[in-house]
Amino acid sequence: MRYVELDGGVGEMTGVIDPRPYLAELPGFAERLPPGAREFATDPDHYAFRGRRCVKDLAPQGAVRSGEDGIEIRFRHNCWKHEEDLVIRYTGVSVFRADGLDETGERGERGERGERGETEVLDVPEGPGVRDLSVLGDVILDEVLPAPGGCTHEIGCRPGTLFVACRDLSAEWSVADCPEARGGRGLRWSGDDPGS
Predict the structure, then answer these.
(1) Which of 12, 62, 176, 185 makes a 20 to 30 Å CA pair with 69?
(2) CB neighbours (10 Å) of residue 140?
(3) For the CA atoms of 28, 37, 74, 20, what is the dihedral angle to 10 degrees?
(4) What is the reported pLDDT for 98?
(5) pTM for the complete prediction?
(6) In three state form, how does the secondary structure of the chain look?
(7) Beta bridge partners of 95
């Protein structure tokens, strides 16, 4: 990522996640983002770690094709933090990469190079098939940047990454169906249910 720190440091402490460099730059380029990407990136809860709509700790579930040049990625909530799941719909996709660890523990790219050198959208199934993204692990943070003809969206996960270049994106939060949660405030403990 260009600005978001996924492994920064504070004094002697390492491994610090810090969106502040990105947030400092965001006002300077927000107007160059397409409308949906701008709305998503500038949402006050986006980088609020305790916020219910912070992307941190969401879990990528799957990617499906949407129309001729679109991709939809679904993210599952974290029961301890979120009350909603997230779906991001990308239109005009020119690049899609899902990089994760293979069976040997090595990072490997999932995607194929096209004739012009870009990664084509080949690893998302045609039709109703879903590309499993759960191997990427939970979201650490993301970064939306302007790009020629649209924007890029990079999502750092544990241990993988997602990267999409597109014309625009739209983010939709929806109430999570979570039997483990009680009012969206975490897992149920045996003493919480009067019937137990």
Answers:
(1) 176
(2) 19
(3) 10
(4) 87
(5) 0.77
(6) CCCCEEEEEECCEEEEEECHHHHHHHHHHHHHCCHHHHHHHHCCCCCCCCCCCCCCCCEEEEEEEECCCEEEEEEECCCCCCCEEEEEEEECCCEEEEEEECCCCCEEEECEECCCCCEECCCCCCCCCCEECHHHCCEEEEEEEEECCEEEEEEEECCCEEEEEECEEEEEEEECCCCCECCCCCECCHHHCCCC
(7) 165
